[in-house]
């Protein structure tokens, strides 16, 4: 006796869509594993993955009333495709695109911190030139500079600018807020700032490669 999976054209179409969704999830799982194992190139992976994601988005949109949860569909049919679920449902973009975005985000963040460090160096040096030598004027500027240098992970812990700013901050902390740097101290601090700034700029191309 022949068993029918559907009673009418609409049901038949629904089961065909289910089969297609099942196939897309399985194909994505195989593709993810092939990419992780270096069986296919990044370019091949990205092209095929984008096609599967596009098909998946179209089909899941069509089936949203019948299949409100892709995870439930996955569990119902015992598919065991965690990588595919991550790629299709959670991420929505190929792994190669995710990696490029992470690199861009990292370099953008670093660029912003570099700009902050440069600004803090210049502000501190300019303030000394304007004879702003009171402890409560100098200390916040050096603290800001030290904090921005510590945020920049491309600089080593013993970087000249970090150690010199720590020394100066420790020295200023022992003085009163209204105390002022002597002319000799101000000249030395300006020299240390300028020296640290030059070392900082010299470190960037090497650290950025």
From TrEMBL:
Which cell locations does it reside in?
Answer: Endosome
SUPFAM superfamilies per the record? Endosomal sorting complex assembly domain, VPS28 C-terminal domain-like
Residue limits of the VPS28 C-terminal domain?
109-205
- Pfam families, A to Z: VPS28
- Per the database record, which ranges form the VPS28 N-terminal domain? 1-99
According to its UniProt entry, the protein's GO biological process terms are: protein transport to vacuole involved in ubiquitin-dependent protein catabolic process via the multivesicular body sorting pathway
Q: What does this protein do?
A: Component of the ESCRT-I complex (endosomal sorting complex required for transport I), a regulator of vesicular trafficking process. Required for the sorting of endocytic ubiquitinated cargos into multivesicular bodies (MVBs). Mediates the association to the ESCRT-0 complex.
The name of this protein is Vacuolar protein sorting-associated protein 28 homolog
The taxonomy runs: Eukaryota, Viridiplantae, Streptophyta, Embryophyta, Tracheophyta
């Amino acid at each position: 006796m022949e068993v029918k999976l559907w009673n009418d054209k609409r049901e038949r179409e629904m089961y065909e869509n289910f089969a297609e969704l099942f196939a897309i999830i399985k194909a994505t799982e195989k593709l993810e594993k092939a990419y992780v194992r270096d069986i296919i190139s990044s370019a091949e992976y990205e092209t095929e993955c984008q096609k599967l994601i596009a098909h998946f988005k179209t089909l899941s949109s069509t089936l949203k009333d019948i299949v409100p949860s892709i995870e439930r569909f996955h569990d119902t049919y015992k598919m065991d495709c965690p990588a595919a679920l991550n790629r299709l449902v959670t991420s929505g973009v190929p792994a190669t695109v995710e990696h490029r975005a992470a690199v861009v985000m990292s370099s953008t963040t670093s660029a912003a911190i570099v700009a902050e460090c440069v600004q803090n160096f210049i502000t501190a040096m300019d303030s000394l030139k304007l004879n702003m030598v009171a402890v409560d004027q100098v200390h916040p500027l050096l603290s800001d500079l030290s904090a921005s240098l510590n945020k920049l992970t491309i600089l080593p812990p013993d970087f000249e600018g970090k150690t010199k700013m720590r020394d100066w901050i420790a020295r200023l902390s022992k003085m009163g807020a209204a105390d002022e740097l002597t002319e000799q101290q101000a000249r030395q601090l300006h020299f240390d700032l300028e020296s640290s700034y030059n070392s900082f700029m010299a470190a960037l191309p090497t650290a950025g490669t």
